[in-house]
Write a sequence for this structure.
C-alpha cells in the first residue's frame, strides 16, 4: 500500500451514448494532477501554510443554511451518476428500460434515485388515496384494501435484490455491451418494507387445498400480470410499500408492489392492484409470449423464474481506464436467487488462476453481496473475471457452458461469468473470451 | 388480525410548525373513507366491475417514459416527508439542525434525502477536485491525499447510525417536544463506504508509542475539530466517501467525512480535510465549550462521546392519532453506541408491564434496529414506552434515573425512555410521566 498517489480508476464518462463510452476520457486524472500541483507545493510544507490564497473559498465563507433545498439531492459534481437508456434497445421509451450505474456505486444498497426502471406501459401516476388492492379468487373473504388498510397489518423489512430476467440479455450472442451499466445494470438492491403475502392470504382465508397459484396484476396501462406459485407466495413474498426507509418511488411501484425475492423482476408486479388465488397458472401474455427461454431445439421454456447465482466486477469495468500500474482494489457484486452467496473467486488471467475475494458482512439471503480483492497490476494485459458460488452449491457458469445448454437465442437468465479485458494502456473493454 | 378496515394511524401533519402539529388532522382518514365508498359499491361485486368509469385514469392511459426525471425523487404525494427545523431552537439557520422525520420512515436505512443536518457554519460547497486530506503530526510520512488517492485504498462498507449528542436535549427538563421528529430526529442510519482510518494511519506510519489521539478537522467555515482517542481510531473509525450506495450528500460531508461509529455525531467530522496524530487531547472549542455535560454539582464532564443504549417508539408517536380501537403494530428504533441491541421491551401502561418486541434481522452493531410488537388497543388511555438493552448489558434508563445522576441542566446524552400518551380519542401526546 505504498505510494498511493496516482489518480484512481476513471469513472464512466457522463455521456450516455455507448459510442461515446468508448472514447475514454482522461478528464478526472488531468484535473486532479493540475489541482494537486497548484494547491500544494510540497506535502511537508502544506501543514504550515496559512496564506488565504491557499485556503479554499468554502472555508473562508458561511455555508448554506439547513433544509434550504427541501428533499436532499446528490452534489452537482455527481450528476454523471444516473440511470441511462441503451439507445436503440427499445422502440418506445414507455416500454423500455433504464439501467443502474453500477460502476459508480458502493456497498450493497442501491440509491432509490438510480434504481433501474422497467415499464411495460410507462410509469403511471397513481393516487394513493384512490388506490385499492383486491384479493379474491379461491378465498373465503374477498378483500378490498386501501393503502391505510395494507399499512396497518404487521410488517417486515428485508434487504433483497430485484433483477430483471433480461439482465445481460444482449450478451447471449456476441454483442459486447461497453459498460457494466448496460451489461448488468438491470439489478438493484433495497431494504423493502411491507406485509408478508402469507399474512394477507391468511386474512382472506385462502383455500389451502385448491389454492396453488396467485395471480398478481398491476394498475398501470399494461395491467401486467404474473403467476406466482403458492410455495413462493407463502415463503417470503411481500406486498411492499417501503423502499430504503421511505415510500416506494413512483417508477418502482408507488404506492404498492409485489416483491418475489430471488425471482426475475417481472414477477414483482409494480402498482399492485389485484391478487387472485387459483388452482393453475394463468398463462398470461407476459408469461407465454415474453419472459420465456428459447432453447436450441426451438422449444420455449416457461415459468423459469429463479435468478441463478451470478456476479460481476464493477470496478475496474468496461469504459474505465486504469491510470498507471500498481495497487487497485477489484470490487463487484454477487447474488443468488436461491439464498446467500457463499464465495466469490476472482481471476485476473481469464480463468486460469482464481483467488477468493472478501465478502462484505453481513451476507444476506437473496440480496446483493459486495466482494473486494487486492490486485497489483503489472501493466500487462489482464482478463478480469469473478465467479460466485451460492449456499446451495450452484456455481456461476461461463458463457460457453451456458450456451452449450441454452444456445444463443435466449434473452433471459444469462448468469454467465463476465470478462473485462485490461489493455496495456489501462483501458478496460468488454470481451467475450475464447 | 380480523377486521382490518379502519384507516391506519394518521401520519404527522405536513405543516412544520410545532403549534400546528398539535391540531390533529383527520384529513387522511376522511379522504380514505370517501374514496372507498365512491370507488367500490361492495367488495364482492368489484371483481366483476369493468365499467370504464371505475377504472382509474392511470390504468386507462400511457404512463411516463423511463429516465425523464433524471435522478429519481419521491412521489409528490409524499412531500410531507421532509427534514424540519425546530422554530426558535437556534438563532441562525447556518449553525442549526434539521430533524429526520422518523415518524414516516420504515426499516433501518434512512433515506439520504431526509438524513438530519447539523452545521456549525453552514453547508459548504466543496469541489472534490480541489479537496485534500492531510495526515500529519506524529507520523513518519505525512500525506496529502486527493479524493482519487483516498478512493484507491482498500475499502469497507458498513451500516452504522449517526446520532447528534444533543438528540433529546430539550427533554432534560420538562419541555415536551410534540413529535418524534423533534424529540429523536437527530439520528439516521446509513450504509457507509470508505477506508478504515487504521489503513491511512498505517500508510502514514504513525507513532505507535506516542500517538494516543487523532485530531479531525473539517473544511467548512467553522473548521470544526474533534479529538478521537487512538483506541477508537484503530478499532472501527472510517474515512467515508460513500453513503447508501452513492457519494456522500453535500449536507453530510461531501466529498469526505469521518465516521466514528457509536460516538456522538460531532466527532464524525464532515468535509474532512485534516487528521493529526498527537500525544494528548487538543481541548478545542467544540470539546471544551460545547458537547460537554453540565452535572448537578456544577462540574462539566468532557469527552463523553459514546451514545448509550436508547430506543423510541416511532409509531404511534406524538402528533399522530389512532383512528378507532383494535389492532395496531407498535414499531420503533433502538440502538447502542456500544454494540448490538440485545432486546427491546415495550410497555403500554407506563412501565408497569413489559413485553418483548420482535427485532428486525440482522441486528447490526452500532446500527439502528427496528422493533415491532402487536397491540390491540381497547380505547382506554395508554402510556407507550420502549426500553432497550444492549449486548454489553446496559439498560436504557427512565428519565428519573437519568436526572438523579445527571441533573436537569444537561443538553447532551439523554438516552431516557420516551413516553407517548394515547388519549381515549386516539390522540398521541408527548408526556413526562410521573
Amino acid at each position: 500500500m505504498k505510494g498511493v498517489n496516482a489518480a484512481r480508476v476513471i469513472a464512466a464518462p457522463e455521456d450516455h451514448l455507448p459510442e461515446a463510452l468508448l472514447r475514454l476520457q482522461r478528464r478526472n486524472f488531468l484535473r486532479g494532477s493540475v489541482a494537486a500541483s497548484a494547491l500544494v507545493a510540497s506535502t511537508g510544507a502544506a501543514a504550515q501554510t496559512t496564506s488565504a490564497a491557499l485556503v479554499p473559498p468554502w472555508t473562508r465563507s458561511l455555508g448554506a443554511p439547513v433544509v434550504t433545498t427541501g428533499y436532499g439531492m446528490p452534489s452537482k459534481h455527481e450528476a454523471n451518476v444516473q440511470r441511462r437508456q441503451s439507445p436503440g434497445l427499445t422502440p418506445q421509451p414507455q416500454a423500455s428500460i433504464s439501467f443502474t450505474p453500477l460502476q459508480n456505486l458502493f456497498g450493497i444498497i442501491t440509491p432509490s434515485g438510480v434504481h433501474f426502471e422497467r415499464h411495460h406501459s410507462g410509469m403511471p401516476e397513481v393516487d394513493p388515496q384512490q388506490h385499492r388492492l383486491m384479493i379474491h379468487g379461491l378465498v373465503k373473504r374477498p378483500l378490498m384494501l386501501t393503502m391505510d388498510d395494507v399499512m396497518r397489518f404487521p410488517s417486515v423489512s428485508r434487504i433483497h435484490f430485484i433483477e430483471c430476467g433480461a439482465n445481460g440479455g444482449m450478451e447471449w450472442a456476441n454483442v459486447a455491451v461497453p459498460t457494466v451499466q448496460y451489461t448488468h445494470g438491470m439489478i438493484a438492491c433495497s431494504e423493502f418494507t411491507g406485509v408478508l403475502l402469507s399474512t394477507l392470504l391468511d386474512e382472506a382465508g385462502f383455500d389451502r387445498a385448491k389454492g396453488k397459484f396467485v395471480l398478481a396484476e398491476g394498475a398501470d396501462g399494461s395491467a401486467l400480470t404474473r403467476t406466482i406459485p403458492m410455495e413462493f407466495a407463502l415463503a417470503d413474498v411481500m406486498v411492499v410499500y417501503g423502499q430504503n426507509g421511505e415510500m416506494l418511488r413512483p417508477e418502482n411501484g408507488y404506492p404498492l408492489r409485489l416483491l418475489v425475492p430471488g425471482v426475475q423482476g417481472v414477477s414483482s408486479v409494480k402498482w399492485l392492484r389485484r391478487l387472485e388465488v387459483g388452482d393453475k397458472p394463468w398463462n398470461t401474455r407476459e408469461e407465454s409470449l415474453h419472459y420465456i427461454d428459447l432453447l436450441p431445439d426451438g422449444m420455449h421454456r416457461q415459468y423459469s423464474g429463479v435468478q441463478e447465482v451470478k456476479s460481476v466486477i464493477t470496478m475496474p469495468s468496461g469504459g474505465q481506464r486504469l491510470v498507471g500500474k500498481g495497487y487497485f482494489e477489484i470490487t463487484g457484486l454477487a447474488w443468488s436467487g436461491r439464498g446467500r452467496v457463499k464465495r466469490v473467486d476472482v481471476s485476473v488471467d481469464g480463468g486460469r488462476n482464481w483467488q477468493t475475494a472478501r465478502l462484505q458482512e453481513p451476507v444476506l439471503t437473496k440480496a446483493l453481496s459486495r466482494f473486494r480483492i487486492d490486485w497489483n497490476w503489472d501493466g500487462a494485459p489482464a482478463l478480469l473475471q469473478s465467479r460466485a458460488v451460492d449456499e446451495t452449491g450452484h456455481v456461476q457458469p461461463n458463457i460457453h457452458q451456458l450456451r452449450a445448454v441454452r444456445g444463443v437465442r435466449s434473452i433471459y437468465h444469462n448468469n454467465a461469468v463476465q470478462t473485462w479485458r485490461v489493455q496495456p494502456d489501462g483501458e478496460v473493454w468488454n470481451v467475450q473470451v475464447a
